[in-house]
Amino acid sequence: MIQFAAQYPWLIPGLPLLAALVIGSLGKWLKGWAHVPAILAMLGSFALSIALLIGLNKGPDAGGIAPIIDFNLFEWISAGNFHVPVALTIDPLTAIYLSFITGISLLIFIYASGYMKGDYGYWRFFAYLALFVFFMTMLVMGSNFILLYLGWEGVGLSSYLLIGYYYPRPSAVAAAKKAFITNRVGDFGLAIGVFLIYTLFGNITYSVVFHRVAVDHEFITVHQALLNWIPFCLMLGAFGKSAQFPLHVWLPDAMEGPTPVSALIHAATMVTAGIYLIARTLPLFQLNPVSLEVVAIIGGFTAFLAATIALCQYDLKRIWAYSTLSQLGYMFLALGVAASTSAVFHVFTHAFFKALLFLTAGSVMHAMGGELDIRKMSGVAKVMPKTCVLMLIGCLALAGFPGFAGFFSKDEIIAAAFNKPGIAGLLLGVLALLVALMTAYYTFRLFFRVFTGPLVLPATAGHHEPSPFALAEDHGHDEHAHDEHADGAHGEHGAAEHKNLDGPISMWGPLVILALGAIGAGYLGLFGAPEGAHGGWFHHFLSPVLGGGAENHAEAAGETAERVSHTVMMGISSVVALIGIGIAWYFHKKNRHAADIVAANFRPLVTFLYNKWYIDEFYEALFLRPLWVLGHLLNIIDRYVVDGLVFLVGFIPQMAGYLLKPTQRGILQRYAVGMIAGAAAIVLGVLYLLK
Amino acid sequence: MLHTLMPILAQVDAAPLATPGNWTIPLLVLIPVIGALLTLVLTPKDNPKQACILALIISLAPLAIVIMMAAQFSRIAVAEGDVAVSGWHYQFAYNWIPAFGIKFLMGVDAISLWLLVLTAVLTPISILASYNYIKERQPEFYAWMLILHAAMLGVFCARDILVFYLFFEFTLIPMFFIIGIWGGAERRKAAGKFFLFTFAGSVFTLVSLLYISYLNFKANGVMSFAMDDLYRFGQTPGAISPHVQTLLFFGLLAGFAVKVPLFPVHTWLPLAHTEAPTAGSVILAGVLLKLGTYGLLRFLVPVLPYATQTYAPVIATICVIGIIYGALVSWVQGDMKKLIAYSSVSHLGFCVLGLFAMTPEGVMGSVLYMINHGLSTGALFLIVGMIYERYHTRDMDQLSGLVRRTPALAFFAVFFVLSSIALPGLNGFVSEFLVLLGTFVSGRTVDGVRMGTLGPAYAIPAATGVILGAVYLLYWTGRVVFGPLKEPVHETADDDHGHHHHVPDLSGREWAVLLPVAVLVLIMGVYPIKVMNSLRAPIDGLVKSVNQPPMLDTGMKTADASVTLKE
Question: What is the ipTM of this complex?
Fold first, then answer.
């Protein structure tokens, strides 16, 4: 299996692509079976990815494989010295990404087959999802910057299509557009970065570029000025895709998409592409220490910004969306303080628990008939016991409760921030702890609000959300049915309260596996490394690509007190998590009235946070409106000024044309003669003037 | 799959391509002309729609010939060398007016070949797309389409600058009638403006090229309009003085710039597009605009290399303005056709920018841009035409959520929008990325030769067009394709019984119109390498000849030019 996977690595993106094509072209006939090709393809891709992971872990000496560099498929683009082969690379970093991308996709596909059952666009949904996996795997497998760009824009497209999946809703369409365009701003930076790389290195293949950076010191000295710009350009791309300030505005709106999409694309996989980009191009970032500091500051700030906003949101999915922003901020913070392994580790653990949180939120939403407002539900644990336990596990992992996945990875990041030399390290560390406190609070605010307390369900609970795809002309019929439904609902209401709303096994089954990951994934970073190495298996496995991460860096800086600080940090962050959970418990379980009083006393702040710091409004006023107005202005100018000017300039030859008009009677020869005669006259005129 | 196809194509054995007196090209141009007459004569009076079928069959003949030519080309390992100047194939020569040295010289290289393919593909498609759209005087319409076809094929084959000019100008006449007779309400104004703008510009072009050949005659004593002769003359250092080069540069530019169209001489385009019938818009955007860029590439740049180097920054600035200006104006249009028309202004800015980057990457991007823009924008006009046939409106305020009603049409709409906004994997990306890359690296010194005179200062503002492109096209998609279903009132309920007017999804004919374009869009996005490899030699030759030192202001004697002028 390992050898097979190493011979046909292109099957990993190939199978989902095939599935997308099959579902896309035969979807009408597949109908309710559309998930089958997608799930089968994912099974295949997942098996191959795991085989590669195992193979790489064993190493070539023990029956495994060595990293595959530049597995060439065919040449894509070639102009001048610019050659782009479609070639794949599989090294530990790619293998880690592949394993969780395909694994979590598989689980979410299974979940979605239950969640989306009976939806009008069922097959379309699976075609898009499979297409997404294709682009995402290409993104991490490509062996050059252009394939990265292909995957980069491709996942943006899938994201666009899936956010706008409920296209009859104007809000969904607007959110999709916003996501794509905001990402394009990032892609602009990425493209400029790639141009710079090509200008300097004359090549866009990773292995060539990084080799040059590693060995050619003279080259680096000569081109220092331009090399310094590359990380900033790439960073812009990373911030767009991973929704970091100032390009973070699209992600919360992206929750317009179906919940499995939010879980897969907008939490677990696609949004971590930015971390992949920086981890992959780390040698270029290391050339310019300032760039890493900027990454750290932006990451830390985004973590803080998003956490504060999450404190005051009421929408189940949006709280998780802001939480995702905040956790992504942590990852960038880690990259910035040279703890890149910890960043990827947090990507890995986060994928499990955030997917779990979104999917359980989806189950709740499903059961509540599409209701997401946490003010309208309470005590849901009574009707959804399984979901409650699963979400609790996710919440504990996110809050950094000791022993759960998030605890270990987040702890590493906070420790690395503190260990960064100088005052900046201290500030970033304190910021990271503060964010950890807020995270624990808002996570359990949601949990206690929704699952504990007296049972309150929205009126829509236990019913299907009305399809956004219903047509106006079907409405007469539809409305009638709906009325009956509503009448029944009143009678059933009592029944709904006692019914189990957990949903079918296809929906909670995959969640159990994710929950196991949310509990256990953290231990990969603790155990399994050979004697004497820092960290766990995870760090050891990635060390050929990313170096030893924070530990090595600290060692290089000569800091020996580091170990102690790391252990202490575990204690501190445990306490912080418990305090956060405790506050949430007091305000949202024990004494909910107190929460309202506090909120009322800080009304302006709450409003400010509820409105997301007014950043959307700010962008609207600063960029969107002025451009729109400029467009209209130019349109008017185009119609009256430019057209008029051109007419004036063109006046003379037009006059010449009119003078020659009598010779034009539709007879071709005369027409030609006239043309040449006129031209000759002008030639003479010009010659005369020149003389 | 293409790999397995290649050996089969290789078996199509070819006669040596450079045989003098090869009749392939004259045949190519004559078939549509004869076909036009046949269409007029043979169409039954009681069933004028058959003119479409007839014209379609005739227009498939040039397509077959062009495909054969492409197959032969692909099996020739194009050798390194100065093929841009000497690498003509399927040559045909006829001493037309010996006294003036006007020869009917025709031939193709890879650049013209792929543009021929574009023309030969888009014409049958737009003929087929007109089947229901054209409701009166069908035989005449299709005859004009075929005449136009012949003229366009002729332009791309011409090797004598007067022959080029003849075909170039001749495309105006059929298009004038197509817009003027079968266009919308303001068709006369649109046709007139179209004609006057392009004609006024090209008078300057004609004067300039006559003057160039006159200078050549003065210098060499031989009257010739053959492109090769004029290339050789123009590329001789000191042959034309800087002052005269400047005049000639802007003189030649005038006609081509209007045709492209470059900002600010683009104002004829939106009107012509909105008024033209679908087929007219498709051909206009798909092929006719490319005559301008092709003229720049084929004539202006190689004949005036020094002026090109000097004035590239000026042109590039105009292009960058056009890219941003076109995008912003496109964004605020309410008429779908106008939106796409202005998008052409933006896109063609990229195309010309790449050419004036004068790097292999940029020129490659520019040539591919001509093909790719023809496919994507042509297809978008087809889509708008299909929407118009269903709802009789192009007003974006009246339409929304069409995907719910016509999912297949919506699929193609989104597909071509994505191609147009340069999504990697589809055709637009390859060309747009190369143009920007080529512009970015322009101005570097490679092997002691400075390649181009642009640089990041032009590439970076131009790259904002990538963002703006997504803005206006996704705005259109979001309003018309997605969103809640909204149809013009009289279309949804056309009787009093509450029954709805049936709005059908794509018919078989419409599938046949859109699917081939979609396939080409995909091929050019995923596997453009065969096309790129064949283009490599002519493009390298062109880039090399333009970037030859010395520059305009170094070591050039103005003396001999002033002597020329005094005589």
Answer: 0.88
